[in-house]
Design a protein that fits this description.
- By secondary structure, this protein is mainly alpha-helical.
- It has one domain: Up-down Bundle (Growth Hormone, Chain: A), CATH 1.20.1250.
- It is globular and about 55 Å long.
């Protein structure tokens, strides 16, 4: 588990690496494309069970180990740091930013954490609601991951043009609506509205994740890596705790309703936190004009 976590930390290294090659007005889209690498979650969800069941669990591990080694070799051979001086990493300065840092962590806790949590929990939910086999439910849940991942570059691109705060506000309000819809479906689930709610919430979470990482180099231009590590850790925690909460809620109440109500609350809380950012952005635009 520790070694897998260390490998996952490479995401924090990649953000400043990518951002260094692009001007600020293009970083949102570039980082969104970089975030498409999360499609590996869907590929693993599709392929690991098939390899495990068709051959063996050890063979599945070997296949992915070889793939990781191959990509590592490509990186070692081709990757180069962006030209220019690199400022030393000062975690103390990043942590001293206080609320400027923690609000980004909160946003990513909900956007990326919500994506990971739903991707993990969706197969069980579909199995319970519609009596799908675990394999069928896993394949359907993979569609959720694909949509969320594909929406991430769009979130970055829109952030480059209209600002990440606006993109995030739309994403959080939409997530609140969709989570409310899923809470409603929990009492009498139907496949068509459930599919619509799941796919739209996937797209909104992807848009939001892309927007958050447009904000990181803007807020911390000289400490992108350090800030990314902290914000990314919040996203990891967001993927860890909600499935536990959903499981506890299901065990205690027999339904998933309360878990989705929690998501509504967090999404609306994030929208409220965004309002001062939107006002300050509007003032800055008026001043610039």
């Amino acid at each position: 588990g520790f070694l897998l976590g260390a490998a996952g930390a490479s995401f924090a290294v990649g953000v400043p690496f990518v951002a260094g090659w692009f001007e600020p007005e293009r970083q949102g889209f570039a980082l969104g494309v970089y975030g498409v690498g999360n499609i590996g979650t869907a590929i693993a969800a599709f392929s690991i069970p098939a390899l495990r069941d068709g051959v063996s669990q050890a063979f599945a591990g070997i296949v992915f180990g070889v793939a990781i080694a191959a990509f590592g070799l490509v990186w070692w051979t081709l990757a180069r740091d962006a030209p220019g001086e690199r400022a030393p990493v000062r975690y103390g300065e990043v942590l001293a930013a206080g609320w400027r840092l923690w609000r980004l962590a909160l946003f990513y806790f909900v956007t990326f954490g919500g994506f990971v949590a739903l991707a993990i929990f969706l197969p069980k939910l579909l199995k319970d609601w519609f009596d799908y086999s675990l394999t069928d439910a896993g394949l359907r849940a993979g569609g959720f991951t694909v949509v969320a991942t594909a929406a991430r570059p769009l979130g970055g691109w829109l952030s480059d043009r209209i600002g990440p705060a606006r993109v995030l506000l739309v994403a959080f309000l939409g997530v609140a609506v969709d989570a409310g819809g899923l809470a409603w479906q929990a009492t009498d689930p139907q496949i068509v509205p459930t599919t619509i709610f799941c796919l739209t919430i996937a797209a909104l979470l992807g848009l939001g994740s892309g927007a958050v990482f447009k904000m990181v180099p803007t807020e911390f231009p000289t400490s992108v890596g350090a800030a990314t590590g902290i914000v990314g850790a919040a996203g990891g925690l967001g993927g860890f705790f909600p499935p536990l909460v959903m499981g506890i809620v299901k065990d205690l109440t027999g339904e998933f309703v309360l878990g989705f109500v929690f998501l509504v609350f967090f999404a609306l809380a994030c929208a409220a936190v965004l309002l001062p950012l939107l006002r300050s952005s509007a003032v800055a635009r008026r001043t610039a004009s």
